[in-house]
Design goal:
By secondary structure, the chain is mostly helical. The protein is built from 8 helices and 2 strands; from the N terminus they run ββαααααααα.
Length: 169
């Protein structure tokens, strides 16, 4: 687990969690870029191979993720998740969690700057998505978010998966 606001990025300077949340809530293409570079840095740390993002077959990567991802979430509750995020400075301040989503899934799709969402609703709903769908398959789906089908909640869930399960280096 990475307990820092800094997001490791493949072959780049670290990103910033608060900036990532801001960009995600606005639908910025930069949020997708940060997620993709973080996923590649994760792959390097997971495999120990700096060439893995360009050489590792996706099926082999999925198998590695399955090996390291616990079958149950590494956080026991939404409140624990929030507290880790706050303690690790992934979020700028505490917020009131909700055990039910603040928004529908559609509200987070295709934002592209035209209709921003509240950052704490986005993080809350991404945390719920991780807890509800925790699995290696869902990890892969969330960390493989593309700009054309951008979903802010999935992108933030992907980053949460990465930081919660980051291999020790």
């Amino acid at each position: 687990m990475l307990l820092t606001r800094r997001i490791p990025l493949f072959e780049d300077d670290p990103g910033d969690w608060h900036d990532f949340i801001y960009r995600s809530s606005k639908g910025s293409i930069k949020a997708v870029d940060v997620l993709n570079y973080a996923a590649m840095a994760y792959m390097v740390d997971l495999t120990g191979d700096p060439e893995s993002p360009s050489t590792l077959h996706l099926d082999n990567y999925k198998a590695k993720v399955c090996e390291v991802l616990s079958p149950t979430p590494v956080v026991l509750s939404l409140q624990d998740f929030h507290d880790i995020a706050l303690h690790s400075n992934w979020i700028p301040e505490a917020f009131r969690i909700s055990e039910s989503p603040y928004n529908t899934a559609e509200k987070y799709q295709g934002l592209w700057g035209c209709r921003a969402v509240n950052w704490n609703a986005l993080v809350n709903d991404a945390m719920l998505l991780c807890l509800k769908s925790w699995s290696a398959e869902h990890f892969i789906v969330c960390t493989d978010e593309y700009a054309l089908d951008y979903d802010a909640r999935v992108a933030v869930a992907g980053m949460l998966y990465l930081l919660l399960t980051w291999p020790k280096t």
